[in-house]
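Saturday, quiet lab. Running sequence design on the structure tokens for the scaffold JK sent over.
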């Protein structure tokens, strides 16, 4: 493998320049005004894959395009999908970025820009590893298909039907995904579980227009207040979700898992400092790592009502809305949870307002047996690339499509994250560590060797 590794070492500077160009596309899947940017990004990506000698196409969907790029299929070789997403979260609030989100900048050994770590940089590492095999004429021991989508950050709707339609072409031994994290630069990790998610929006409608709060205030229920009152019922004093049945299907953590999570390096003081909060908050009886990795939650992602502009405006708003996502753990299902939550809000919504409940995207949690032979192969590759003993992680984020890889393709997913806890995914000043970028490429090189053995 030395020629392949040498190739990587020689070309780091160019890889970083390419990644800067990639991050330059404002591929924000949530915002319709970026539709053309999404396509341009997908086409650039496919052309780049072609230039490396991969057979690549852009597939149009009802939503954003999907890019497929593959090495030639050979009989008797194991076949792996490398999944990633070229869409990114909205960059707002823009004023909090030290440098513009779509003008990638390198400083302090990291590449800054929206999508640098989530997820452009992470799958770029795999692509560059494959380039190194191809350009040095080194035989790839497995067949690979890159599957890069543009809707991960909004629920992967188009990919779901694409998988079903293309299940033959995508049939594989396992899926490799680098879209999670590692606890520290020198602590590589295999993530064996992800939380699921269930999204909804709740709107309370009050008067038929914004009202003068002096003339009418006191005689009608302010929808913003009604929503706050309703949302305040969701958690009890112990930080538990008080919605009946919320925890009913939850698979408890085993003593072994709790021990494993305790072994992860964690300092409450450093954690508070990283997040800038005066104190931590969460479900009592669980450590912060358990709370964020292995327990279900109910989070308000957005809360909107009334006047948000400059100065003051004395109104009773006509409506108030909350955007909520709940994180799920095995064996909760989004459908059941959403039904329970809607019933809870219907029961407690006062008669003074009209409630509208809109369920959104969702997926169950994912779990892989860490003793699976391919998981063990991945652990060997991590050990080789990082020169350290890897840890097993559960993570709190969600990657909706991994459940369908299992259901539709019958394939397990190996989650080999390259994001650091302070990489600012979904926050201003997102970055990707360039040392980990290089390690990630080496990881990919070793991974195909280890996985090929079957
Ligand atoms: N890369 C994340 C998922 C992630 C991050 C998993 C950290 C584990 C640790 C992914 O891009 C993401 O943000 N997913 C969304 C999915 C949602 C929009 C359906 C998420 O988790 O919020
Ligand atoms: Zn994300």
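Result came back. Writing it out in full:
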């Amino acid at each position: 493998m030395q020629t392949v590794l040498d190739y990587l070492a020689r070309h780091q500077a160019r890889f970083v320049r390419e990644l800067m160009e990639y991050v330059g596309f404002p591929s924000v899947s949530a915002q319709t005004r970026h539709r053309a940017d999404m396509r341009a990004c997908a086409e650039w990506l496919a052309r780049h894959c072609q230039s490396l000698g991969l057979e690549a196409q852009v597939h149009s969907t009802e939503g954003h395009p999907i890019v497929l790029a593959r090495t030639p299929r050979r009989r008797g070789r194991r076949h792996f999908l490398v999944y990633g997403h070229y869409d990114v979260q909205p960059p707002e609030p823009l004023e909090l970025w030290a440098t513009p989100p779509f003008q990638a900048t390198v400083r302090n050994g990291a590449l800054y820009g929206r999508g640098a770590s989530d997820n452009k940089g992470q799958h770029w590492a795999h692509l560059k590893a494959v380039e190194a095999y191809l350009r040095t004429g080194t035989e790839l021991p497995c067949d690979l298909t890159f599957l890069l989508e543009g809707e991960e950050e909004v629920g992967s709707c188009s990919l779901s039907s694409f998988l079903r339609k293309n299940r033959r072409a995508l049939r594989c031994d396992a899926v490799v995904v680098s879209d999670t994290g590692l606890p520290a630069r020198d602590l590589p990790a295999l993530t064996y579980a992800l939380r699921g998610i269930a999204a909804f929006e709740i709107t309370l409608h009050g008067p038929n227009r914004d009202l003068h709060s002096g003339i009418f205030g006191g005689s009608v229920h302010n929808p913003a207040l009604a929503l706050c009152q309703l949302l305040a019922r969701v958690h009890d004093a112990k930080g538990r979700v008080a919605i009946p049945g919320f925890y009913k299907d939850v698979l408890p953590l085993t003593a072994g898992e709790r021990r494993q999570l305790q072994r992860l390096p964690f300092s409450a003081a450093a954690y508070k400092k990283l997040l800038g909060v005066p104190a931590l908050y969460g479900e009592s009886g669980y450590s912060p790592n358990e709370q964020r990795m292995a327990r279900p939650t109910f989070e308000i992602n957005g809360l909107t009502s009334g006047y948000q502009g400059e100065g003051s405006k004395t109104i009773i708003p006509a409506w108030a809305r909350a955007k909520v996502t709940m994180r799920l753990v095995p064996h909760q299902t989004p459908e059941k949870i959403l039904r329970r939550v809607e019933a809870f809000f219907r029961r407690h919504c006062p008669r003074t307002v009209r409630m509208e409940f809109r369920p959104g995207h969702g997926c169950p949690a994912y779990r892989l047996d860490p003793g699976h032979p391919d998981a063990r192969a991945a652990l060997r590759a991590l050990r080789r690339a990082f020169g350290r003993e890897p840890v097993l992680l559960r993570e709190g984020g969600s990657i909706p499509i991994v459940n369908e890889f299992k259901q539709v393709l019958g394939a397990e997913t190996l989650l080999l994250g390259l994001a650091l806890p302070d990489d600012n995914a979904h926050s201003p000043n997102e970055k990707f560590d360039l040392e980990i970028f290089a390690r990630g490429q080496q990881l990919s090189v070793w991974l195909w060797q280890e996985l090929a053995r079957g």
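Notes for JK: Residues 116-135 form the longest helix (20 residues). The radius of gyration is 23 Å. Ask whether to fix the surface positions before the next round.
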